[in-house]
Predict the 3D structure of the following.
Amino acid sequence: MKRVIFVLPFLLCAQEDFISDFEYGQMLYKNPRGVSCAACHGESGEGKEIIAYRDEANQTKVLRGADIRNRTLEDLEEKLSRDHPVMPKYYLTDEEVKAIYDYIQQVYHGSEGKNPK
């Protein structure tokens, strides 16, 4: 009987996650498969300049990462599931895409009194 009582507190705490949902989304956004989403989409999904170059007509062209802050979860899922000429394919699971989406929403829109940064 003493062993059961000793193990019971550990079983009650076993449901706690090692990292929070926010930290999981942040980790995926900052380094999902070796290439950071933030490198092109900015720290909070606002989009940013990736590179500027001159074309054959000597016109300056700018390649920008898209602003993804107001995208829907369904839109992100669709964009991440197809091949893109510039963006790497990450092969993220539905759970990972949802975690990234939730992270962006918390960073951009706030998290109800919590400081997500």
Q: What stands out?
A: The CA atoms of residues 13 and 103 lie 25 Å apart. The first strand starts at residue 49 and ends at 54. Residues 112-117 have pLDDT under 50 and may be disordered.
